[in-house]
């Protein structure tokens, strides 16, 4: 008898394809997870960076001091808030009727860890604090207010430092070579 040409895969060939796909996925998954973790840290850090730059810009635009306050109950639970003037606000306050509500020109101005992805603020160790921008020069009202935030990825494998200098300049760098995030130089 003549056999016709067979189309399709045998069960052995199919099993071999499945095994090869499983091996490829097992090799690619850790790299994919690291990429996602770095991206979430960068996005969160960029949001914090933009928050400070926005506060400085509002200070210049309104010709009024703007104070940025932060509160941290843990590395995973933190918030930042801004208010016109030199007194701190409470970024956890949700009632606009309260005196310590964070708002600029009636707009609630808060950034929380929930909105900044998985970026964890490890330092400063202080649970709360504030700094004010001088509206004339765009600098911090007090040179002692200069500060840095160390933001870590969920695993802690990647770390970025956001620095707010006394000049008002905000910058971001990788904390060290071990925890380097591509695209960011090592902090001086």
Write a brief structural summary.
The protein is α+β, with helices and mostly antiparallel strands and 188 residues long. 28% of the residues lie in helices and 26% in strands.
Structure description:
- The strands form three sheets. The protein has a four-stranded antiparallel β-sheet with strand order 5-2-1-7, with helices on one face. The protein has a four-stranded antiparallel β-sheet with strand order 6-8-9-10, with helices on one face.
- The longest helix has 52 residues, at 11-62.
- It has one helix spanning 11-62; strands spanning 66-72, 78-84, 103-104, 107-108, 110-112, 120-123, 128-133, 147-152, 159-164, 170-174.
- It has one helix and ten strands.
- It has a domain at 18-144.
- The N and C termini lie far apart (81 Å).
- The protein is elongated and about 90 Å long.
- Helices cover 28% and strands 26% of the residues.
- The protein is an alpha+beta fold and 188 residues long.
């Amino acid at each position: 008898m003549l056999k016709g040409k067979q189309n399709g895969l045998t069960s052995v060939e199919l099993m071999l394809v499945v095994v090869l796909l499983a091996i490829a996925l097992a090799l690619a998954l850790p790299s994919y997870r690291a990429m996602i973790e770095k991206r979430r840290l960068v996005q969160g850090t960029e949001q914090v960076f933009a928050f400070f730059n926005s506060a400085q810009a509002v200070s210049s635009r309104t010709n009024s001091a703007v104070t940025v306050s932060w509160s941290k109950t843990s590395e995973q639970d933190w918030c930042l808030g801004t208010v016109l003037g030199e007194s701190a606000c409470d970024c956890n306050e949700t009632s606009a009727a309260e005196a310590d509500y964070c708002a600029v020109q009636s707009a609630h101005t808060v950034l929380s860890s929930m909105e900044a992805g998985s970026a964890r603020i490890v330092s400063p160790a202080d649970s709360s604090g504030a700094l004010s921008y001088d509206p004339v020069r765009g600098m911090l009202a007090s040179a002692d207010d200069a500060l840095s935030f160390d933001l870590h990825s969920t695993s802690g494998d990647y770390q970025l430092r956001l620095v707010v200098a006394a000049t008002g300049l905000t910058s971001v760098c990788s904390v060290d070579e071990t925890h380097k995030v591509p695209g960011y130089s090592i902090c001086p």
